[in-house]
Amino acid sequence: MRKLIAGNWKMNGSLAALGELEPLAAAAVAHLAVDVMVAVPATLITPAAQRVPALAIGAQDVHANDSGAHTGCISAAMVKEAGARFTIVGHSERRGDQGETSQDVWAKAMAAHRQGLSVILCVGETEAERDAGRAARVVQAQIEKSVPDEAAGDWLTLAYEPRWAIGTGRTPTMDEIAEIHAIARAKLRMLIGGAADSVRLLYGGSVTAANIGDIVAVDNVDGALVGGASLTAAKFVPIIEATASTAMAVVDAVGLKPRTC
Questions:
Q1: Residue 200 β-bridge partners
Q2: pTM for this structure?
């Protein structure tokens, strides 16, 4: 399965910052074993998509409804019209800061899919939940309630992002990442059967060029959702390059040709 590196600018960026995207597009073209996507603030979707048409630009959230009296909200149809190819839903910061439930996330994923957008759906436990030994149960429950029944790898990607690792510089051990990703894959198989094997599983949380090689070498890790390090090409391009290097090393080890689609 092709690796995917997705950036999330969160509430950062400006028109002046869009120059950071051009080296990312060049890196994506240079490293065909890796798909590259960047979710920018809604105000930047159109100028970003116009400036780097070769790069998949996405939204950071959408409303569950297609239209209506929802002041300040943006629908999936609107972000698609603006130039987005995908959206993130259920990010830990929205689950935590905005109180979004897994049912809310399910509805947003369905809304995005209706409009033909790809979806990165996020799940993950809090520090208190991990310390209480509930990480696996929390992630399983979020997957069960958030993932649509018709989910498939051609439009859905699942991102595991432990909330305690977001922006803290802390990351789980590789064994901890492997455990949750294996649990996530198994839960997806229970829900959607064989289609689960085509759904890419990303890790998110304090990803850097220094640790990405180890992370994407873990079983069932198909890439990463990158926050702060995606804001500048100087930090994000090395992550793409390291991912490509690891992916090609695996290809060489098993004697396969890299997939290009």
A1: 157
A2: 0.94
pLDDT by residue for the chain (261 residues), tens only, comes to 899 999 999 999 999 999 999 999 999 999 988 999 999 999 999 999 999 999 999 999 999 999 999 999 999 999 999 999 999 999 999 999 999 999 999 999 999 999 999 999 999 999 999 999 999 999 999 999 999 999 999 999 999 999 998 888 888 999 999 999 999 999 999 999 999 999 999 999 999 999 999 999 999 999 999 999 999 999 999 999 999 999 987 655 545 454 433
The string of DSSP letters for 30-72 reads H-TTEEEEEE--GGGHHHHHHH-TTSEEEES---SSSSSS-TT
Contact predicate 120/159, CB 8 Å: yes
* DSSP conformation class of 165: G
Rounded CA separation 54/26 (Å): 9
d(CA 183, CA 68): 38
Give the catalytic positions in this structure. Answer: 91, 161
Structure tokens at 164: 């305690």
DSSP of 79-112, one letter per residue?
HHHHT-SEEEES-HHHHHHS---HHHHHHHHHHH
Residue ranges with strand state E in the chain? 3-8, 34-39, 56-59, 86-89, 118-123, 156-160, 200-204, 223-226
